[in-house]
Amino acid sequence: MSAFMEETKCLLPRIAFIACGCFSPPTPMHLRMFEIARDHFEMQGTHKVVGGIISPTHDSYAKKGLASSLDRCAMVKLAVQSSNWIRLSDWEVHQNQWMRTQSVLQYHQNFMNNYLNSASGAGDAEPNGSLPGWLPFSLRERTDPVHLKLLCGADLLESFAVPGLWADADIEDIVANHGLVVITRCGSNPEKFIFESDILTKYKRNITLITNWVPNEVSSTLVRRLLSRGQSVKYLIDDLVLEYIKRQRLFNVKSKYITDAVRPNHLIFNHAYTDNNKNAASTLISEQNMDESDSPSPQLLQQATSRVFCCGDTSPRGPKLLRVGPGQAVQVITMQSDEKSESQAKKQKIAQVQL
């Protein structure tokens, strides 16, 4: 019987999750969403979850509390180091501007498609020939496609109704061709919100609603507020993330606990990386009030629109690629050669975090 169950599990369609947002800083609930979602699909016995991806937003998002992308990527790397399936993707922060969520989904889905379909398994390898760290380890154990779904909270789902925040075409593309996995609070009513949206109702079959029965109200905003007041956030975020915040003095941290006392080896950070971050501090954008579901300024939205190439469009830097079905997304190309050099330098700084 167990052998039959294992064989059946191997035949299940494969999915992966991606969460987009600020992660400034990452909290345990950001990671809990992945675990809750995986438990749901495994208990339902409908899909095999092969990976989880965290994609922090670009620095030009320009909202209060948004630490630099170098610091946010470093904190995410520290937060997920105990996980064997959740990974950081720094592709979004290496672009030359803020990217729409739909474009982030398209890039990662397309990369996985190319990787699975390439004979060598290299796919669209990075310039140095290596594969990105976010790619699930077991991706090539099977040749069938992996469907990437957007993992989010109910607040992001409800933000679809905010006028001017989301383009209807983007909402339809995300829900129709990728799908949503929504972690909701006990007592909330996301079904009513879906009913009131024509687009969401049309693609309701692609929306998975999962109730979180163990509520956790600790948000990035709350953590930043406590830190700026000099109050303890111990046990509210990962110890390694907290240590990094203190050493980098992020979020206007005011704490009597900042000390250079001897610490365990796994809490000692790479000082070269810290120095590099200090040198990059002058490029930070001024901060405004922000939550994970906030949108950038209208000017930013206008600037971004001209650089994003939607499904079936022909970009000035690449040929036209046609969608052949759900999950077959168009690759988004936004970087020129000079931008790639800057991106590679940033990647090296992020990689210098000592785990």
From TrEMBL:
Family: Belongs to the eukaryotic NMN adenylyltransferase family.
UniProt KW Transport keyword: no
Species the sequence originates in: Drosophila guanche (Fruit fly)
Cytidyltransferase-like domain: residues covered: 18-225
GO biological process annotation, one example: NAD+ biosynthetic process
A GO molecular function held by the record: nicotinate-nucleotide adenylyltransferase activity
Pfam families recorded: CTP_transf_like
PANTHER family, per the entry: NICOTINAMIDE MONONUCLEOTIDE ADENYLYLTRANSFERASE, NICOTINAMIDE-NUCLEOTIDE ADENYLYLTRANSFERASE
Gene3D superfamilies: HUPs
Protein name: Nicotinamide-nucleotide adenylyltransferase
UniProt EC number: 2.7.7.1, 2.7.7.18
Keywords: ATP-binding, NAD, Nucleotide-binding, Nucleotidyltransferase, Pyridine nucleotide biosynthesis, Transferase
Pathway(s) the chain acts in: Cofactor biosynthesis; NAD(+) biosynthesis; NAD(+) from nicotinamide D-ribonucleotide: step 1/1; Cofactor biosynthesis; NAD(+) biosynthesis; deamido-NAD(+) from nicotinate D-ribonucleotide: step 1/1
Top-level taxonomy: Eukaryota, Metazoa, Ecdysozoa, Arthropoda, Hexapoda
Keyword Acyltransferase: no
Highest rank taxon of the organism: Eukaryota
